[in-house]
């Protein structure tokens, strides 16, 4: 997988990420991976749905991967959920 075709979802507004995905596809990408952790997962799902329904109707979800990462902070270790959504053009 090409690391250039990855959009990391964080705390910015949904439309910022939608624009990033649409730009990737317009630049010739066949697939774009949307990655998020923790509370940003629901925003990543929103980003994917807005992209599919409003901007790229031909885009489809090719794969969804879920997982857990161990995060170490000054308060000890915690687990944080991760999600990857692979969008592709048919």
Outline:
The chain is α+β, with helices and mostly antiparallel strands. The protein has helices at residues 14-26, 40-55, and strands at 6-8, 31-37, 59-73, 76-89.
Main features:
32% helix, 2 helices, single chain, four-stranded mixed beta sheet, alpha+beta, 90 residues, Translation Initiation Factor IF3, 43% strand
Secondary-structure topology with pairs:
Blueprint: E1 6-8, H1 14-26, E2 31-37, H2 40-55, E3 59-73, E4 76-89
Parallel strand pairs: 1-2
Antiparallel strand pairs: 2-4, 3-4
Description:
It is a single chain. The protein has 90 residues and is of the alpha+beta class. The chain has one domain: Alba-like domain (Translation Initiation Factor IF3, 2-Layer Sandwich). 32% of the residues lie in helices and 43% in strands. It is built from 2 helices and 4 strands. It has helices at 14-26, 40-55, and strands at 6-8, 31-37, 59-73, 76-89. Strands 1-2-4-3 form a 4-stranded mixed sheet, with helices on one face. A hairpin with a 2-residue loop joins strand 3 (59-73) and strand 4 (76-89). Helix 1 crosses helix 2. The longest helix is centred in the middle third of the chain and has 16 residues, at 40-55. The radius of gyration is 14 Å and the shape is elongated. The mean pLDDT is 94.
């Amino acid at each position: 997988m090409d690391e250039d075709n990855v959009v990391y979802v964080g705390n910015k507004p949904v439309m910022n990420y939608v624009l990033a995905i649409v730009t990737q596809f317009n630049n010739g990408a066949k697939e774009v991976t949307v990655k998020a952790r923790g509370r940003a997962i629901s925003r990543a799902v929103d980003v994917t749905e807005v992209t599919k329904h409003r901007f790229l109707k031909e885009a489809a979800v090719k794969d969804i991967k879920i997982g857990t990462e161990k995060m170490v902070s000054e308060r000890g270790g915690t687990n944080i959920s991760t999600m990857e959504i692979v969008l592709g053009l048919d």
